[in-house]
Amino acid sequence: MAIPDGREVLRLFMRCPSRLTYHTLRFTLLACLFFLPGCGLLIDAVELIYPLTSNELDRICQRRQVQVGMAVEPFRPFVFPAIWTDEGARVTGLDVELVRAVSDALTSHCGTPVVPALHLVRFRDLFLLLNEGQLDFFVSAVGAGVPASGRAGFAYSNPYFFHGGIGVIAKRPDVIEQIQARLKADGSSREKLLDGLSLAVQDSTAAHLYADANLKSLRLVVCDSLPAAFEQAEASANQPVDVIIGEHPVLEFMVKTTRRDWRLLTREDGKPLRFTQSDYTVVLAEESYKLRWFINKVIFQLSESGRLQSMRQRWIDDSYAYPRRASSEGLPFDVAKMVAHYDQGTCRGGGSR
Prior knowledge:
It is a single chain. This protein is of the alpha/beta class. The chain has 14 helices and 14 strands. It has a 6-stranded mixed beta sheet with strand order 11-7-10-8-9-14, sandwiched between helices. Strands 4-1-5-12-6 form a 5-stranded mixed beta sheet, sandwiched between helices. A 3-stranded antiparallel beta sheet has the order 2-3-13, with helices on one face. Helix 4 packs across helix 5. The protein is globular.
């Protein structure tokens, strides 16, 4: 049997229309080694796909752009809804300011302007896109170390926000009183506090994963976004939503600003009622060692200079109009996805557990 010419094999491979992940690409190139006659051709072929002499930082410098993923669902105050300005659609928030700090540091490192290209996608798709190599990193109030098969094979930066975790909000006085009575009777058992209640949660978030793993005796409603969960709570008379769980800082900010008819539940001593404890980090591919070191350094410098604390103060505690901040310091994103950004999605019943 005649051995095919290596150049022809490579040419056919490059014309393949399928979307291949980095790992598939690497495996295919290794298979091609058997058909490539000579080291020179081998190195040239590999460098067409994945330059041997560069790392992820070098590639960002070469293209002068860093691909950043963020959740299309607004996680106030980390990610706000986008607004229209004279310069187009822009988004802002604490995580957006962090992205700008990283891109500014990359500009200094590369010696040439590096522009952050924001990709706003559904939270449940962020891990997939990062795994496919379409993103350099993403940031959307993500806690490190959440046990889930879908989050295997990823790396996390040092924390940029501390004391996160899952909290709970409720609206009806009878539900609040019921939870508080249970908390007073046995405050150590978080899993039993919500027994028999209807719980809304955002799809694929840490709160959803926690509910799947730990909260069995309740009715679960899975929503595409937190706004969809609030709408479900208002509209559903037959299957009312009793409580919503989610990232504690996000829920706390919302009940203080836009959802004042809801109440964030606390312990008897007034301290936050959390179901988990977590710190928020930047998420990267596991092999992005250079970029992870770089981002860790940026976060360290922000902490050392006091800017990290200042960011928390101005986004969490201060009063402000986020559209003004979006206009003056926000970042643009692909306007083709503007419609999807304002689609808050729907909810679906998960049934009794």
